[in-house]
Protein: T9SS type A sorting domain-containing protein
Organism: Jilunia laotingensis
Amino acid sequence: MKRLLLLALCFTISLNVSLLQAQEQTTLYYFDEIIDDDILLGGGILNVSPNGKYAVGYDDIFMETGYVWDATSKKLAMIDTGAGESVLVNDVDDNGTILGSFQNEDGIYSPGYLKDGEWHSLPVPEDIKESRRKDSDYAPIAQAFSADGKIIGGTIYYNEGKFRPVLWIDGKLQEFPDLQLEGQGFYLYDISNDGSIIAGWTESSMGDRIAAIIVNGELKKLYEPDMENEDRFFLECIASHVDAKGNVTGYITDDDAILHGFIYNEKDGLKYISEGPIGCSLNDNCVFGSISVWGDASIIKDGEESTLKEFLKLDTDKFISTVTACSADAKILAGSGICANDMGAFSVPYVIELSEESRGEITSIQQQNVDKNSVSLSSGGQLFITGSYTGVCVYSTTGSCVTKDNQQGHIINLSQLPSGMYIVKVVNGNQSQSFKVFKR
């Protein structure tokens, strides 16, 4: 049954989609139904076209292939796998052209795009690791469109044993051979509207994945972990999205494997804005993500974080866990939810179509935004500060300043300080806030 489903030419899933109405017809399309006796739909939506007409995702749990949602039918359809058994999909443009990687009859993946029902290959470097192209973890893949669709970003696993980003500009391959990369290299997640910013992760000398960007060919790590702390957890930190304004969003993990969502731009630098992962942003004052790793999907608007269901007044018992994509006009939000049955817990895709009223509330950003700061201290002594600030000073209980930092976005290392209570004074211009933290 599974093979018949996978080989079908983009058939429509016969799901009884849950249509949940909120104020002014904001509608949740939640795809958690059983397809047949054995197969469920898993995974989540990865990207939405800028005009909101299409959304794509990938089921890596049950179907091992991609799917597309369109705003006309309001339904999800499985994507044609061509000659192979599965496809990887990542992005879609305003015309419904889908980016990803597809297999030939031998199971070899090629980066490409699906247009008018047919998969088309993109050129690959000569120095590509052919022996590993059958492994989806190393498959060369096209992952992100520029705004006009003329630039495509992707990742290639080279013979040197590293992931490297590539661009296809009007179909022509552009490589970055001069990037000095450690470990397994750099893995691309998104590109800016004009292709000048590439976002993803780069590996550190200790094997950690570090959120990073490439701007005009230059690699920039968005933060530096404490490399001397041998007791810390493996860090997986990702810059996952670039919005129309050039803001980069994502998350990092601390010593206790607790996530901290961030937003970065050239003007303001790095800001930690949430204790959960950030999936995408509309602009620097409207950001979407999750309250925590397994928490509800959230929206941070004008510096205030709330659950998406509360903000949109969605009366539903369906669990929406994160927002990973939004259209340019905020009409469509999408991501993944979590379901549980006899087979266990698994993620499922969803799409929310917003009413005019809800869209107005999201896009009517206040111009006078005041960032609220908060602080958290990991068990390893890493101090994280959310919001904007111009300086930080950490005081002992005797009133002595034991460390200070004037660089926003730095992780302040307190691991060398004795256990006890400390006062963290966060300064933003002529205003300041003080917080108490206890170091174990």
About this structure: The first helix runs from residue 2 to 7.
